[in-house]
Structure formats: structure tokens, C-alpha cells
Amino acid sequence: MAEIRFNCPKCSQLIACDELWAGHDIQCPTCQAEIAVPQNQAGASGNPLVPKPPSTPAPRLTAGTTQVARSSSALSPPIRQLAPKPQKKKSPLLKIIVTILVLAGLGVGGYYGWGWLRERQEKLNAKRREVEKTSDGGEVGHIANLYDVLDATEPGGRGLGGGGSRATGPRQRSGTEPRAIPIPADASGAALQAAEKNLPVIPAIWTLEVASAKIPEGRVNGMISGTNFLAETIRVEPTATAQVFRLTQGALASPDREFLVYLHLKPGETIAGHTWSVSKDMKATEVPQVTKRWKTNPRYAPLLKQFPAGYAMKLEFGPLTNGVIPGRVFLALPDTEHSVAAGLFIAATATAETSAAAQPAPTVAPAQPAMSASEKAAFEKRYGPVKR
Questions:
Q1: 308: Cβ–Cβ under 8 A, 6 or more apart, which residues?
Q2: Is the pTM of the predicted complex or chain greater than 0.90?
Q3: Residue 141, CA distances (Å) to 194, 289, 315, 320 in order
Q4: How many CB atoms lie within 10 A of CB 363?
Q5: 108 pLDDT above the threshold of 70
């Protein structure tokens, strides 16, 4: 059976229906408007074999009249709505190209951004190290805090008790040679060690070049095996073969971290006023042996590693007074963790100050009284004759 194709006059929807509905009213499937099916021009001559469309008792829709609702039992015209053409799918190749371009942009931005960030961080680190080197007064002065405490105990010094004027910075040295920290004779060891605890903590910088090594004007601190180190106890302990210089953090019996320097002195030498300068190339037998101790677990005993040579060290001792001795130290080990310790110290020591005048006179055994003849005879009878 032939079809009639036409557009809805309201919404322009393309509609197809059988030619039997030509001249009848139908409802647009899209906009629901009542429209009249146009006559089929091809079948206008009439075909006796084609039956006529069924007649309906309802009148045609005219102006000024009310349309009668169709019965639900009436036949619906066989209308087919022509679906619009499907949209073309986007090519997956385009999505892949866009994704690659986005990832490439992120990669280039991350590469150059990381390089810029690393360069900026290196500049900031270099600037911080330069400030640390110059903020402590350099090699031409000692720390002002230590002098304030020491001078406060010195009669007529700069302290408030002496009535003198107070300086605003460290004293200047008369020369470039390093010297030990002066300690007044009337200052107790406990007071000086307490003053040492008030010193600032200036980070030590690791290097194996003795010429460029810097001793910060603050408490002895640094790193041991990748862990921060702060010397809480500093001592010089004499042994049978050496004077052991100990920089300890934690308990002395089982330290958490510790440096030990075995100082070998010649007969008649003392550590007071003595200095050591050891470069990484020195391998002589008189080079002090260095040992580091550290704990990887607080429940276990500390580990130990010895360095007979290959390290860099500057060690200066001042005068020994009241059981304490001041000094300065820089120690850098050739390990992979760049262990280092540097700063000023006031060490306790068990080394006694002796002099010829202070030595006691030798003790003379008292003379034995002479035995009588009877006592002599009894003695010889029991022990034998006395040999002269």
C-alpha cells in the first residue's frame, strides 16, 4: 500500500501514513496538533480495487464548532514518525591526541618547575650558611654571652657587680691566632659549666679541609650517623695510655651519641694550653684516634666505629682551673653520614694540677730500737741468726 509523506504545518515534523487516510484529520505525534492529511495526487484518478476509507460519524473540524473527542475504540491511523539522523560519534583518536597533549604539558611544566624550585632552594641554603658563618663574629672574636658570664665573676670586670660599662659585642683579638676562653680563678666549675649551657646553638658545617673549617661561637653540636647531636656532657678522663676527650649526649655509662678523642701526650706534657690540628692526610702514629658511638634503638647498646686517620680536627685547650678547662673544637669524620661536631666548651677533668712545691716530702721509716741480749737470743733461736 502506498504511503503519503508530508510535514506537520505546526512543527514541521516529517510524517508518513497510508494513503487511505488522505483527506482525514490526524494528530501529530510530536506536537499533538490536529492536522489534515493531504490528498494523494497519484491516486486521484481512482482505483476500483482500492476500498474507500471507512466513514466516521464525527463531522469534519470546522471553524466555530467544537471537536468531538474520538472514541478509544476508534482505529488510530498507522503513522510512523521518521527519526532524525543519528549524530556522528566523535573519533577516539581525537581524545587520545588531547590526552597526550595535556600530559606533555604537565610533564614540561613539572620539569622546569622542579628545576626552578631546586635552584631557589640552593640559593636559600647558601644564603643561610653565609649568615651562619658571619653572624657569630667570625674568627676574630669569641661569643659575647660567654664573656658576659665570665666577666660577671671577675673582680672589676665588665659585669654589673664590677660597676664597669657593658660592651655590646665580643672582644677583638690582638692577632689571628686562636686562643682559649679565659676563666677567672675565683669562678667555680659548676658556675662555668652552667654558663656554657646558656650559649647559643649554631649549626656546625661539615668539611674535611682543616683550613676552611669554622668553629661556631656556640655550644658543641653537630650530627652523628645522620642524627642531630648536642654535647650535654664534656669531660677529659685520664687513662693508662691516653687522655680521653669525651663529647657525650645522654648518660655517660650508655650514651645515646658520643665522640671520643684519645689524646696521647709526651712525658711531662699536659692538655692545658695544648692544641691539635689534624688533616685528613695525616697518618702518623701520634695522630689521635677518634671513635663515634650511637644508638639505633634506645633498648640496645650503642654501636661503635673507630677512625684512626682520615678525619679533620681542630682542638684547642685553655688553662686548667678549678677542675675545668675551656676550649674550642671542630671534628669532622669521613663517614657517609658526614658526622661532625664543633663549638666552644668548658670541660670537666680529673687531671690534677701538680707542682714541685706541692709534692709531699718522702716518708722516712722510723728507726727500730736495739734488742737486748735475751731478746736477740730468743729471736735467733726461732728465726735463725740475723744476717748483716
A1: 287, 289, 290
A2: no
A3: 21, 30, 17, 21
A4: 6
A5: yes
